[in-house]
Specification:
Elements: E1 3-7, H1 11-23, E2 27-31, H2 34-44, E3 48-52, H3 60-68, E4 75-79, H4 84-92, E5 97-100, H5 105-128, E6 131-134, E7 137-140, E8 145-148, E9 151-152, H6 157-167, E10 173-175, H7 176-184, H8 192-206, E11 214-219, E12 223-228
Parallel strand pairs: 1-2, 1-3, 3-4, 4-5
Antiparallel strand pairs: 6-7, 7-8, 8-9, 10-12, 11-12
Helix pairs in contact: 1-5, 2-3, 4-8, 7-8
Amino acid sequence: MQHILIADDNHDITDILSTYSKMEGFEPIVAADGEEAIKLFDEYNPDVVLLDVMMPKEDGYEVCRKIRSKSNVPVILITARGEDFDKIMGLDIGADDYIVKPFSPREVMARVRAVLRRMTNNSKDSTSENVVTISNLEINLEEYTLHIGGKKIALTKKEIETMWTLASNPNKVFTRDNLLDSLWGFDYFGDSRTVDSHIKRLRAKIDAVQHPDWSIKTIWGVGYKFEVVEK
């Protein structure tokens, strides 16, 4: 049976999410604060994590960072704040999805199923070919690492998946909707601004190292592509 870690200091929320999780066939593990969430994560190694952002002791962002430092398990943040900055911050530190309160428990379970499907599909894809190498770029999807000129670039899980998607298809143009569907799934309720903000942060990190033979190009009015310079 798959385990789902539910971390929220609101007992009414954890109760209803636990009930719906059991209906979906999960075994729920409940934490009332950030410190307990980390302890239970280490103890049970759950298959998916639901994190409230505003928790005592350690907030959801910090818990997500700690989980990401040692695991690629799907993480969904839940919060009462719905500003773009908060959503982008959550995705930038490695969350797979973001849900704003008030929410439907059925929607939460749909998001859980979606991130688990994407995780399964990514695992299947990586077994046949785990590494993309183009010029001085190397992406290892199995290890979730990216090197440019031998230097490891610190990227989030989603940023590495973005680079993998683009670099695996050099010179192919992806629309913003293409990238939303590929990286966040058809069930994602976000919009194209998520992609633009994500690419902007990704570029800032990879441009710290020179890569004259390739770049992420903006195709105005359409989307993005991984462009390889012809010599």
